[in-house]
Each structure stands twice: as structure tokens, then as C-alpha cells.
Amino acid sequence: MMIAVVEGAATSTVRHPTLKGWKLLLVQPIDLAGKPDGDPQLVIDKLGAGHGIKVLISNDGRGTREMVGSDVTPLRWSVIGLVD
After folding, report:
1. I need a surface site. Which of 5, 22, 25, 48 has the fewest CB within 10 A?
2. Cα(47)–Cα(22) distance, rounded to whole angstroms?
3. Under a CB-based contact definition with an 8 Å cutoff, are residues 47 and 79 in contact?
4. What is the 3-state secondary structure (H, E, C) of the chain?
5. Domains of the chain by residue range
6. Which residues are bridge partners to 57 per DSSP?
7. pTM over 0.85
8. 28-64: pLDDT as tens digits
9. What are the CA-CA distances from residue 77 to residues 33, 39, 47, 58, 68 (Å)?
10. Does domain 2-82 fall into CATH 2.40.50.220?
């Protein structure tokens, strides 16, 4: 799990079938001081996070597969919480 800041939404005209209907976000992981910590990640979001919001993300591929209901989804990262 990591804390990240939402940088924006990702749009596409063609998506993997398991990602249809899911909101895709581009997030930047941050450290405790709020500085960038690693590469930006593409995540799915079911909580409705928007630009500039701090979120808790997980790279638990199994959890993401269960969330989308498929064992063949190409996405690994998901938003699992909003940070106050």
C-alpha cells in the first residue's frame, strides 16, 4: 500500500474488456513529506477520487482481479481508500 496524489484521469477509446465501466486515474505515489516517491501509476477507482486528492493505493493484483471480477485483467493497482 502507498499514499498517492491523483494527477488526472485517463481516457481511452479502446479498453481491455475487464476495464469497461471503471474510472482510470493517473496517480503519483508520495512519501510522508509529500514529495514524489517513484513512478506514476495507472489505477482503477471505485471511490470517486478527483484531481489533487490523496488516496491509498494497493498493488495487490489479486484484490484488483477480484474487484473487476476477472482473472485476466491487465491492471494491478487500485484505489482502496481516500486520505483525509
Report:
1. 48
2. 11
3. yes
4. CEEEEEEEEECCCCCCHHHCCCEEEEEEEECCCCCECCCCEEEEECCCCCCCCEEEEECCHHHHHHHHCCCCCCCCEEEEEECC
5. 2-82
6. 2, 79
7. yes
8. 999 999 999 999 999 999 999 999 999 999 998 888 8
9. 22, 13, 14, 6, 12
10. yes
